[in-house]
Every structure is written in C-alpha cells, then in structure tokens.
C-alpha cells in the first residue's frame, strides 16, 4: 500500500490555523471541553482516519462538485457540531496525497452545494 499524506490548503489551512489559535487561547484561560476544542479534536481524528484509508469520506457526485474547487473528485467527512471537511485525492506511483480543501459549518456547506432547508 502506498503511503498517504494529508495536506491542508487554502481555506482549510486558514480555518485550521484560526481554530488552533482560538483553542490555544482557551487553554491559556483554563477552559475545557469548548465547542472549538471538540471541533479541532474531530478534525485531527478524521485526518488520521483519512491517512489510514484515503477513501474514508463520502464521495460527492461529480456533477455536484462546486466549480470553485476545480477538482475531479471530492469527498466529504462529517465533523462534530455538523461541520464538514472536504478533500480531494491525488496519487502517483509513489504516494497518495489527500488535499483538505475546506472546513465549513453546515449552513455554509448547504449554500455551497445548493441545498435548501424545508
């Protein structure tokens, strides 16, 4: 089996760094079990799952992939508090790379994919 790398890019990298900063401040203040801490833990856990199985996420149908991502495959992972993590898989003869493209809340996810609440 080929080695798997997971790389956060663009909006996902920014969201992760911002969340990590917030959690760091919360830890300094002695807070425990905040929503941000749960979300960060969830992201880290799912990244480990993806390293073990690059196809861990739910496959998004090609005609549903937002053009802004400019990818031929997109997978979705559900995080805590109804957040979503979106990634694409690239591979060659040596390794598989999973690029985390976005970490978004549920309303943003619904809007991006054209879902509406009834």
Total number of β-strand segments? Answer: 5
Pattern of helices and strands: EHHEEEEH
| Unreliable stretches covering 5 or more consecutive residues | none
The main sheet orders its strands as 1-5-4-3-2
Number of domains: 1
Walkthrough of the structure:
This protein has one domain (4-112): YaeB-like fold (2-Layer Sandwich), CATH 3.30.2310. It is globular. It has helices at residues 10-28, 35-52, 106-112, and strands spanning 4-8, 58-59, 75-78, 84-91, 96-104. It is α+β, with helices and mostly antiparallel strands. The longest helix is centred in the N-terminal third of the chain and has 19 residues, at 10-28. Helices cover 37% and strands 24% of the residues. Helix 1 packs across helix 2 (35-52). The protein starts with a strand and ends in a 6-residue tail after the last helix. Strands 1-5-4-3-2 form a five-stranded mixed beta sheet.
